[in-house]
Amino acid sequence: RSVYDDQPNAHQRFMEKLDACIRNHDREIEKMCNFHHQGFVDAITELLKVRADAEKLKVIAQTEEIIRCRVQQRNITTVVEKLQLCLPVLEMYSKLKEQMNVKRYYSALKTMEQLENLYLPRVSQYRFCQIMIENLPKLREEIKEISMSDLKDFLESIRKHSDRIGETAMKQAQQQKTFSTTLQKQNNLNYGRNMHLGRSRILESKNEITLKRTFEDDDEHEEEVLTAQDLVDFSPVYRCLHIYSVLGDGEIFENYYRKQRRKQARLVLQPQSSMHETVEGYRRYFSQIVGFFVVEDHILHVTQGLVTRTYTDELWNMALSKIIAVLRTHSSYCSDPDLVLELKNLIVVFADTLQGYGFPVNRLFDLLFEIRDQYNETLLKKWSGLFRDIFEADNYSPIPIANEEEYKIVISKFPFQDPELDKQSFPKKLPMSQSVPQIYIQVKEFIYASLKFSESLHRSSTEIDDMLRKSTNLLLTRTLSSCLQNLIKKPHIGLTELVQIIINTTHLEQACKYLEDFISNITNISQVSVHTARLYGLSTFKDARHAAEGEIYTKLNQKIDEFIQIADYDWTMSESDGRASGYLMDLINFLRSTFQVFTHLPGKVAQTACMSACQHLSTSLMQMLLDSELKQISMGAIQQFNLDVIQCELFASSEPVPGFQGDTLQLAFIDLRQLLDLFMVWDWSTYLADYGQATSKYLRVNPGTALTLLEKMKDSSKKNNIFAQFRKNDRDKQKLIETVVKQLRSLVNGMSQHT
């Protein structure tokens, strides 16, 4: 830049100086070449001499290269051979990792076995192989832990789905039973074949739980079959079993599985406290148990040695004892017969289901007999209420029949036969009240209800017949009898009602033979069979009738006492009114109307009631005379009392109830009559003279009774001077009275000493 930027001639001067410099360098080069020329010549000479040796060296170099290549080739071959040994190990290890990733643990264990036994020993000297060998136990432990986790998940899954599995199995068993029953009904000739089909179907479904769901779509029905595998995935337990078997810990796995299942069994067998309140509680309880044992049966048949028949039998026996204890306890809380019946049906399905899987269930059917007794007890309580309601609603009047249709309706409900009544024209009345056909219908309903429990118990017709008769006997002898006895004792039941009750029990007693026929028709067991029990309705209704009769006598006497209590005698009257007392006439009118009602009673009952009433009336009148609170009696009162007794005798002689012979009924008042005659006639000499003789006119007059009454009259004479006329006209009579009193006292004392 300085050359071009300076003055114009500077470039030329620069070129001149540059040429001068070049010429100087050329001269220096020439000098140097001249100086080294000889050395160059010597070097060329030496090179010419080395040419021959170089040829030799070239041959030697080529030989060494060949040797080196040979060595290298050999090394490569060795490496290839070693790599060929290592590659399968790496491939298997890679395969192992892949199997672990996709959770194919059983295959992974098999791969580990191949690695350890076949591949790794060949290349064990390499470091990476040692690392693999160290990792394999860790992988095994990891597989073991994962398998155990899967097993726990499986156990939780079957615990969760046990109720659904059991419900499915029970439905299938019930459908199978219904199917078999239908086949039997359709063709009895093929009974044996149908039973074979039924058993074969149960065996076919033994390892497969099926649930048929019907889906309706455009009037087309499709059936979907669900298996146990659809409800629970059993693959974990298969994998775990295989894995632990490969690991050599099969026994540990079996013990763990059985221990956990025993714990689950205890949980399944533990019922809810409110299970007895609804049938759903029992259904859930049974479903869980069935599901548990269906799973165990499935495991038994699809695995080798995980569970054994001995183990399942032991587990079932333990469970069966617990189930029976639970059912026995909870069923005792049931007071509803419908709930007990549903429980029975559930137990039957439960037993049939498990029996289909080979579990013994005889003890369950034995339990059903205990529950049957309780079912009968609940039925008896229920029917006791029904009987009470019927008795409460009854009007205790004969059933009025207006026409033929009404008559047929009643006859269709109750087996009544009376040729004499059939001859009568309508309207007419049946002798029993409306409660009789209602009671008869309810007894038949009870038999039906009792029969429901006997169904599906795998019992013979003879046993069912015996059960029905026993339960019916309990209904008649305990429940109905108790209701009748309580009814008879109720205070609002009067004489008319009691009479109707006696008539009702008579007709119910006659209907017992029709109930026996009814049971025989149900069970197809002839009554002439030696094993056939008889109904005890005869004794039941007889006892009730006797109780009603006794209550009639009691109430009749109570009514007589009520009339006696309103008696109002003036025991100091000087002379009688000339007519019987009003209370007594009312009493006699009451007795007449009452005994007219008794015309429907059996003759002996009416006669006994009439005799009892007359005897009680006579006794009450006698007690009235001899009452210790009554201190004095006038002759006028005796005369008035005599008029009342005469009315009683007239009533007795009027034959208020037919069937008495002669003056049998009048004899009820004989004690009063002889006593009053003695005082009215004042025939003491005859009485004292004939005393103790069988032909005595006053044989029924007790000396003590005569003395008591005479002393009352004596006390009265002191105040009212009733014997003043006797003293004026005949003073000896007063002495006679005193003499009679003394003699009566001596007789009484003599009787006391003799006694």
UniProtKB/TrEMBL annotation:
GO terms for cellular component: exocyst; plasma membrane. The keyword Transport applies. The keyword Hydrolase does not apply. Pfam families: EXOC6_Sec15_N, Sec15_C. Keywords: Exocytosis, Transport. GO terms for biological process: Golgi to plasma membrane transport; intracellular protein transport; vesicle tethering involved in exocytosis. Residues 17-170 form the Exocyst complex component EXOC6/Sec15 N-terminal domain. Residues 364-712 form the Exocyst complex subunit EXOC6/Sec15 C-terminal domain. PANTHER family: EXOCYST COMPLEX COMPONENT 6, SEC15. Belongs to the SEC15 family. This is EXOC6 protein.
